[in-house]
Amino acid sequence: MVYELVAGAVSSYILGDAVTQFSIVIGVFLSAMGLGSYFAKFIRKRLLETFVEIEIWIGIAGGCSSMLLFTISAFADKLFPILFYAQCTIIGVLIGIEIPLLIRILKQHMAFKDALSNVLALDYIGALAGALLFPLVALPYLGLSRASLVFGVMNLSVAAVGIYLLGKSRFWISMRLAAAALILLFTLFFSNRMVGFLEDLLYQDHIVYAKSTPYQRIVLTRWRNDIRLYLNGNIQFSSIDEARYHEPLVIPAMASHPNPRQVLILGGGDGLAAREVLKYDSVQKIVLVDLDPEMTRLARQRLELTALNKGSLNHPKVRIVHQDAFTYLERATDFFDVIVADLPDPGSESLSKLYSTSFYALCVRRLSLKGVLATQATSPFFAPEAFWCIVQTIETAMPDHADLPKVKSCPYHVHIPSFGEWGFVLAARHKIDLKRLKVDIPTRFLTEASLQAMFVFGKDLSAPEKLESNHLDAPILYNYYKNGWQRYQ
Fold it and tell me: Is 100 exposed, middle or buried (0-12, 13-18, 19+ CB in 10 A)?
């Protein structure tokens, strides 16, 4: 179970789309285990000795799996999918041989029904233990590479017990066990340095911080004065041009409200959107909802980030909530003058829910009378169908009511060197007078002229025809997004 979870997590980090990756990994593992169970019937002699050999190979293959995958992604990224699923198949076959072999060994000492019941019962209980240990203990405290290595050592401890039970003629198999243990322990001891070396190959700049959390892989890099944040290998900002993203994300929404006092930021754990909101003296309270406590801890404590965000997450007006944005909106009772959605791109089915009609309906319900919503909306150039799908989804988020006017949206865009052409959407239940929007706070990028220009689209950025809205039960946005970006890869 742990090896499956490690494989799914690593492939999600490297290939993206967690739902697809975990589904394929589980399917490959289960089918490979079935294949291994079939092969087990051809093993007729030296059952216990073969079982010990299998445990040693599982310990090596499974224990080194995450480190091997990181190595493949660094040196042969184009071959990663083929080698990754080949590795899953090999580990699955070895695991599949275990149970039939163990049942046949125990059958020599007890009734077949008892052997079968005991082995399957322990196997299922062990699966539950592994499923709980991985997210709650292994991943937070060990990380992906060390987690697989530690569980590999556990497989070798099972082999050691088997060698003890063998009695005679165990010298050479003991030597193989010792060699496997040395390999795993050596790799475990140097795992942090190895992962750091491999990640240095993956990223152009020097890595100053890297950590795997239960939610994502966080990497912070520096090159001269350029600080960059990566989540699961995807760039989130570059300090050189981040103002070209965060000012357009925040300022149009704040300028659209006559007196913004209560502000909700969904995502934005780096504190850069909060920095822009705090420039408005009228703001009395900011609630920032981010899923990952490690991200907000970095933004509060890491000097590279506090220098960028001006210590925004340590400001007394800011209250941080570590929760899924969708869950927070479902339970929230407060109303906000401005809601800023600084969320990851809809690069998976699970992230698509944060751009669904249900999500935007929850946002609109939490807006005050003249409240305004602003969201990032991926690239209108690279993924136009995804961008305009978000625009349409916001407009159809709430049905028309006699006492509640229809949501009106104002899409806009800006060029960001690190990302390319990037899109945003402004929305409210009242008509926003774009000509009256002003920039009356200090900025690095925006002027009133450039603000007005953001709402003008050229012919090559116009909305495609016959787009569907994005719903929870039909996340069409993910397909639009994936198909759009694949055209430029």
Answer: middle
